[in-house]
Specification:
mainly alpha; flat
């Protein structure tokens, strides 16, 4: 009896997370030139984005070897809702607990990490 084939390859999701982590480090290094507050604000913004993406990837690809499309679809929905909740909670906690804060650095770094998530499928498709 043969094993069921995976429905989805989770490797691109792992590559995306690695790319987001590398971009986060670069963003934080660049933000240092605007001072300490901008640096840690950028780190928080990038961290919120990466944590949300990691949660989505974990939920979405948790059942990728199970051969169960319903479980995978449920995981995608759970991952998306959880990602949005984590992002909202992350911003709420940062704005509540971190003072002083550079809102510009926070939002720009978050947006840049999201851009990495949007363009990485295009870059990964070229590698195949």
């Amino acid at each position: 009896m043969s094993q069921p084939q995976p429905l989805v390859n989770a490797k691109p999701a792992v590559q995306l997370l690695i790319g987001q982590l590398m971009a986060s480090v670069i963003i934080v290094i660049v933000a240092q030139q605007w001072g300490r507050v901008a640096c840690y604000s950028a780190a928080f913004g990038a961290g919120i984005a990466v944590i949300g993406s990691a949660y989505f990837a974990w939920q979405a690809f948790r059942f990728h070897n199970a051969g169960a499309p319903k479980q995978m679809l449920r995981g995608f929905y759970r991952g998306l809702i959880g990602k949005l909740v984590l992002i909202v909670m992350g911003f709420a906690l940062v704005f509540r607990l971190v003072h002083p804060l550079s809102a510009g650095a926070l939002f720009v770094s978050f947006a840049l990490i999201q851009v990495v998530a949007w363009i990485s499928p295009l870059l990964l498709a070229r590698q195949d």
